[in-house]
Amino acid sequence: MTRLTARRAARRSAGSGGAPPQAPWRPLRNPYRPIDVLSADQVEFIHESSLDVLERLGMDFWSPAALDRLARAGLAVDRAGQHVRFDRHWIMEQVAKAPPEFTIRARHAGRSIVLGGNHVNFSGVGGPPNCSDLDGGRRPGSFKDFCDLVRLEQSLNALHLVGSQPVAPIDLPAEMRHLDVYRAFVTLTDKIWSPSALGRERIDDGIEMMCLATGLDRPGLAATPMLIANINTNSPLRVDGPMLDGAVAMVEAGQPLIVTPFTLAGAMSPVSLAGALTQQNAEALAVIAYLQLVKPGAPVIYGGFTSNVDMRSGAPAFGTPEYARATLAGGQMARRYRLPYRSSNTNAANTVDAQAAYESEMSIWAAVMGHANLVYHATGWLEGGLVASFEKMVIDAEMLQMMAAFLEPIVVDRESVAIDAMEEVGPGGHFFGAAHTMARYETAFYQPLVSDWRNFQSWQEAGARSATERAHAIAKALLKAYEPPPLDPARLEAIDAFVARRKGEIAKAA
Amino acid sequence: MTRLTARRAARRSAGSGGAPPQAPWRPLRNPYRPIDVLSADQVEFIHESSLDVLERLGMDFWSPAALDRLARAGLAVDRAGQHVRFDRHWIMEQVAKAPPEFTIRARHAGRSIVLGGNHVNFSGVGGPPNCSDLDGGRRPGSFKDFCDLVRLEQSLNALHLVGSQPVAPIDLPAEMRHLDVYRAFVTLTDKIWSPSALGRERIDDGIEMMCLATGLDRPGLAATPMLIANINTNSPLRVDGPMLDGAVAMVEAGQPLIVTPFTLAGAMSPVSLAGALTQQNAEALAVIAYLQLVKPGAPVIYGGFTSNVDMRSGAPAFGTPEYARATLAGGQMARRYRLPYRSSNTNAANTVDAQAAYESEMSIWAAVMGHANLVYHATGWLEGGLVASFEKMVIDAEMLQMMAAFLEPIVVDRESVAIDAMEEVGPGGHFFGAAHTMARYETAFYQPLVSDWRNFQSWQEAGARSATERAHAIAKALLKAYEPPPLDPARLEAIDAFVARRKGEIAKAA
Fold first, then answer.
1. pLDDT of residue A510
2. Is B191 in contact with B158 (CB distance < 8 Å)?
3. Cβ–Cβ gap B351/A464 under 8 Å
4. H or E segment at A498?
5. Sequential DSSP letters for B130-194
6. Measured between beta carbons, which residues in chain A are less than 8 angstroms from residue B413?
7. Chain B residues within 8 A of A454 when measuring between CB atoms
8. ipTM, 2 decimals?
9. Is the pLDDT of residue B510 over 90?
10. CB–CB contact B428 A60 (8 Å)
11. Chains A, B: CB contacts under 8 A, how many?
């Protein structure tokens, strides 16, 4: 087989099931300087202001255990009010203990990720109560849809990790649903996944099931982290008990945790971007400092989620100019503390149309050029996070693939500058047949997943399908071609036994 | 009238005719550092390589007048082959004469623009043979459609200039069509417009009509330029006679000219980005150097249009990762010579869908973050430039407005950081009613033109319209509310007499 035929064969196989070939899963780094929207002075002003907030106003920490720990550390704790005021020097001392960069290992060793520096990782949508596709329309999430979305996330090479919960399987009982969810993650994907940080129990179950899936014990898993979870603050200036307990369970188990304040400007934070960013920074630093008190050196990620509400309707807006600037500014703040940074791919569209795409691109460009190390909700998010869309998932994968190709540095050397090719072709000539072209054309350019570049007539004859309709067909083809990753049957048996036992315990406790 | 009611009234009037209010026309500057995709060494390598191309290979200049001028300047001219080899020092001496920044005055004094530095200007689509809207479908351009598109470009505040020819009015005779086109520009818009640089005659007619419209004579117009035109090279390494003649007519009349090589990698330039950029740079420098020989200090713009073709179909692709990197690299090359930079908002979609939006956003981000001073085809371009779409025009205006808002620096000071507001609201509270919010909420955030941020139920009850359908309604409302800018009836009479006379001359000559 010639090199060329081999390449073609590889493409065909990659595109099996009727889906177009994708770029391979690969680690990404952003070689370009981040876009700074704040001056160095402005970064320091926000930094100092957020420490003022923590000293003067403090925060609610709704966890007696946390209040005890913080009191023992010498902070001003009001136990009745569940409130803490933080000394600025203590905050900075604690935050300085967090590592600037760390690795999370995937079950598929080739799909491990690095968070920090100029590494970029994309993870799928997490948390929507509903899902939607062109066949079934908009509907509450079911376990079947959940599993299909996980299969799709496993199939999309643009995603480094799967989402924390692509859709809520609301047909399963809420108090034991997480066990089915984790079992699905373990069996349907070999990418890194996230347990739910809503209380200690859900984290502990996730740790236990990951140990069973990998054959590691808890110290082994702590030594080579394989999970990641996210908590949100209850902005303004409050963090609830289950979130704190879940976060503590994660860091005690040596697993990385993202701390993401939920600062929608005008609603949960000041209407001014500087105010929202100051509050975001205060909340993130306080929780991160607390987690460093719990376990010095724990791997944590600074999360930014500052957007704004539509002041006429109160509806949250995403992918806006404010969102893009806050995302870039958030990256500057995270780098100020040498912390890995998490952002998101967001939009507020109600259908997978031009708005969904342009709001998402605003988010993606800002996240990537803000040097976000982890871009949450990178595929599938619609309606401000209320819906996981199958079609949007594929269109987002295209946008992520494009961004990944954009991050490949241009090669500039004698061969690529190709003066000989210009000489061969001559003025007014054509490069299609030039030797330089023939040697490179198969891999020279980005190959699209969804984009249709045919001329109007060919496109019309092929059914005049929109990008959303093409994405629908691709999602179906990927699901048809999906194959689960290998898992030792003995390990699966142990997991099933664990799930059965835990369900029994939970049912009994209820 | 309270301040708040006055603001609301202003909004209503701005949104007359049923169209949502727009952000006002305003000059833009990009306060952020450009994204550099090339290292300083790579810029120099491309620079030196492009001078090698001009020395070793040279270029076809298909104009006897140009060949004479270049021979007199001491360059190696092959008159029979219509070919020139350029000395690298001569090129750099000439290019250095071009001004780094200049102003173009609009008939509406408030709509003058600056090209150079970190100024950003958007102009409408130019050149498509077809147009399209949801009512009338895809059709060859007519003079009626041409006029409607100019009216729309006049109405969209996001556009600083109108496009060079939003659609070709192919129902008018080709040899005198430009006279009707210029008359339409003069009567339908007070934004800066472009005469066609296809030969000297068409430029001279444009200059004459602009003089009649403004009351200026030719020296007066030369002293305060009010027109701009673009020429493309016939890549590779060739520029035709009419383009050269038109370009010379522009610079002799003191009007700014854009030189844009047409370097689609793999077709009209090497398949490698570095090769395409080297050729783009060589062609742009050669033509700019020639124009500086014609008129030292003539205001010129370095145009970049490097994209790639789909190597499977030969179709041009736009808004790709290659396009985005080439756009950013082109900005670095232009800045290397202290020349204003022109880029474009492009896409290859066949309909106004998610692909049209994400390819356009790739182009817009790259253009703006590459510090393009002039973004051509910024609204309305579809199908790789074969169609001017009414709906795309409105959706692009939204994306441009968003980018304009993104370029507004974040205010960071005591008031905007708003610690007092956080204190007022308290942990777990809500900022909707806070004094800080009430004082700012009306102007705090970007107001969308097309985006619909309502929740799914409200959106569904309102007709479940896609962004493209909403854009259609907005285009119609803007056309309904359109009013032509004032023009002295005596001047219009003179223009009409000129058009009649010129049409007679052209008919007689045919």
1. 82
2. no
3. yes
4. helix A489-509
5. EEEETTTEEEE--HHHHHHHHHHHHH-TT-SB--S-SS--TTS-TTTHHHHHHHHHHHH--SBB-
6. 45, 274
7. 313, 315, 350
8. 0.96
9. no
10. yes
11. 403
